[in-house]
Write a structure and sequence with these properties.
The chain has 126 residues and is an alpha+beta fold. The protein has two helices and six strands. A hairpin with a 2-residue loop joins β3 and β4. It is elongated, with a radius of gyration of 18 Å.
C-alpha cells in the first residue's frame, strides 16, 4: 500500500518561528521551507503613526512554514503547531493541509513517499 503524502502550510507570527521549528524537529519533522509573507485575515491590519501622520497598514508581516510528511501523523503536526502558536489573540495564524499526489527527489529520481524520507546513513555535502 502506498503511503499518503501530506503538505502542511503554517502561517503565523514571525516571533514564533524558532519555537515552532524546535517543536516540529522534536516530533521528527526535519524538512521545511520558511518564507516571509504579508497578509491580512480577521485582523484587517492596523494603524501606525509615522512623522505625525496616521497610516493604515493593511498587510501584516507573517511567516509561512511549509512541510511535507508521510510517516509522521498529520494530527501530531497540527497539535504541536497549535500548542506552540496559540496565544488566543487575533493574528495567531492559520494551518492549511493538502493531500499530495506525488513527490520527486530530483537528485535520485525517487518518487512518492521515498522522495521525502531521509536516507539512512546518507549525509548531505556541505
Amino acid at each position: 500500500m502506498e503511503r499518503k503524502i501530506t503538505k502542511i502550510d503554517i502561517i503565523t507570527r514571525p516571533s514564533k518561528l524558532e519555537e515552532l521549528k524546535d517543536a516540529l524537529n522534536a516530533i521528527g519533522v526535519l524538512g521545511m521551507t520558511v518564507s516571509q509573507v504579508y497578509g491580512c485575515g480577521l485582523q484587517k491590519g492596523h494603524k501606525e503613526v509615522f512623522r505625525g501622520k496616521e497610516y493604515d497598514i493593511s498587510l501584516v508581516p507573517k511567516i509561512k512554514v511549509e512541510t511535507v510528511v508521510c510517516e509522521i501523523p498529520v494530527e501530531k503536526v497540527l497539535e504541536t503547531a497549535q500548542k506552540v502558536l496559540r496565544t488566543g489573540k487575533f493574528g495567531d495564524g492559520k494551518i492549511f493541509v493538502y493531500e499530495l499526489c506525488d513527490a520527486v527527489r530530483i537528485r535520485t529520481g525517487q518518487r512518492g513517499a521515498e522522495a521525502i524520507m531521509d536516507i539512512p546513513g546518507e549525509k548531505p555535502d556541505r
